[in-house]
Design a protein that fits this description.
- It is globular, with a radius of gyration of 18 Å.
- The protein has 172 residues and is an alpha/beta fold.
- The longest helix has 17 residues.
- Strand 3, helix 3 and strand 4 form a beta-alpha-beta unit.
- The chain has one domain: Alpha-Beta Complex (Protein-Tyrosine Phosphatase, Chain A).
């Protein structure tokens, strides 16, 4: 019996050691939504096993750390892969509108929203949760503040979209 237990522990430890590292700033929002920075190809290959059904990638696929085979890796698992390439220094209202429409179309599916570091993903997901899902801004802000404090064009986009919706929330 003792050898069986030791063998089982060794096997489980070897599986854990072989598991690919999680992406930077991995932030589970709820059971159906997660944001993160750029996952590795190995981690992306585990998405179906983790229950994911779709991926929204918010950085241009030409950035240095992009996984160039990401559409293929995700697609081979039968998952939806969408790229909405948002330029870092110039997020626009149209970018948020497209993102909100995409996320709405995937409602009910387990979705990973990622970019390079989880700055784009966390900010747009915050806006979606507040503006579409009507989550309390302070509650939704917690997932952004774990990752960063938006500044520049991202801060401007966030505050202008909240103001346009009549939501008085300024965490800055």
């Amino acid at each position: 019996m003792r050898s069986f237990v030791l063998a089982s522990l060794f096997f489980m430890a070897s599986l854990a050691a072989a598991a690919p590292a999680a992406p930077p700033n991995l932030t589970p929002i709820d059971a159906k939504l997660t944001t993160s920075g750029q996952p590795s190809a190995a981690w992306l290959a585990t998405l179906k096993d983790q229950g994911y059904e779709a991926v929204i990638y918010l950085a241009p696929p030409t950035v240095d750390d992009a996984v160039h085979d990401e559409p293929l890796i995700v697609g081979k698992q039968g998952l939806v892969w969408i790229n909405l390439p948002i330029r870092w220094g110039a997020p626009a209202d149209a970018d948020y509108d497209t993102f909100a429409a995409l996320l709405t179309s995937l409602r009910g599916k387990k979705v990973l929203v990622h970019c390079q570091v989880n700055f784009r993903a966390s900010t747009l997901t915050f806006l979606y949760r507040v503006l579409v899902e009507k989550v309390d801004p302070q509650v939704a802000w917690e997932s952004v503040s774990k990752v960063w404090t938006p500044d520049g064009a991202w801060k401007k986009l966030m505050l202008s979209r909240l103001k346009a919706a009549g939501i008085a929330f300024d965490p800055f």
